[in-house]
TrEMBL record:
InterPro entries: MFS, MFS_dom, MFS_trans_sf, MFS_TsgA-like
The name this protein goes by in its record: MFS transporter, FHS family, L-fucose permease
Entry's transmembrane regions: 12-32, 52-73, 80-101, 107-133, 145-166, 181-199, 228-252, 264-282, 294-313, 319-338, 350-368, 380-398
Domain of life: Bacteria
Amino acid sequence: MNSQPRFTEKSYLVIFAFVTSLFLLWGLAHSMSDVLNKHFQTVLSVTKSQSGLIQLSVFGAYAVMSIPAGMFMKRFGYKAGVLLGLSLFATGTFLFVPAATENSFGYFRFALFIMGCGMATLETVAHPFIAALGDQRTSDRRINFSQSFNALGTVIGPLLGSYFLLRATGEQHDLSAVRSLYVGIGLVIAAVAISFSFVKVPALADPHEGDVLEGGIPGKPLFGHRHFVWAVVAQFFNVAAQGGTWAFFINYGHEVMGFSDEKAGNLMALFMAMMVLGRFVGTYLMKFIAPNKLLATFATGSILMCIIVAQGWGWTSYIALLMINFFFSIMFPTIFSLGLKSLGGHTQRAASFITMGVVGGAFFPLLMGMVANHNVAQSYYLPIICYLVIFLFGYKLYKVRA
């Protein structure tokens, strides 16, 4: 092994670019779901807690699909896993057509569930895929870099949603706008799938396979690796915090700051841009600061920001709300990469379980919605519990133990 391992190999650049584009696609879809919360509250007359069922539909799919996706990937390989994920993703978007025709919140939730199955498959495959495109010692940086484009997708999503949905709400009260938007997204996803089918993916040796490094024990069962188990727990609470924080961002802007729905939706793009900035800054800082230490530091920043947001202090709290996403930025990819360390042949299966931890985002918006029905600002106290768990993982529980 080289003393200074490369970020990735030149022969992997085309594949790396394609797989990184997948991070952008599911980032866009996740943030679009948060715009749907406010849109359906208006058009379908659902409450905040009921609109939280959108996140239950999307993130709940991760509980159902992550393990089968991991098994499929192990049997048929990375490329087949990507194509399966893109196919399910596109199918879910096209199901918005009958959902809009029936004017049914339940049908929309089913379409979102199928989309979620596709996204769960892509996330299960893409993280170990990116890890396989180079040395294990640079896997943290590669995953954080690719996740930066996931964050870019979350910037594009609110802009599209605000323009096509929240702006349209004032002009029409049917669901033609949401139908047209998701069909367009589905066509793009289908085009990516067709293009990727022509890409030749060589046989890849996962850098986590083979020798078990840094204190691991060959032959040790997967759930005998404590750092992996805690990574699943940390990811559950991480995405729980994400789901709740994002779901009621527009409500916060409307109710606490007095913004119109469209303006609050457009500002969500700035909210997501803070995550893009955080991911690039975090990727750079990891050249000098151990990933676990940076994770604990950012978790502390998120806790402080949540306390300020919950006070409802006008622009001071709103800026703190924007900063939550800056500090949130590195959490998902860093937890993922730390959880995969030194797992040998368990790596692909482990990726399935860590991805399944995303189901935390299915339940937390419901809890925050119950508080937000009375006071949306004070609902931001709840994510502090999640960030405390993440802090503990970065501070101590990440360690690989013999």
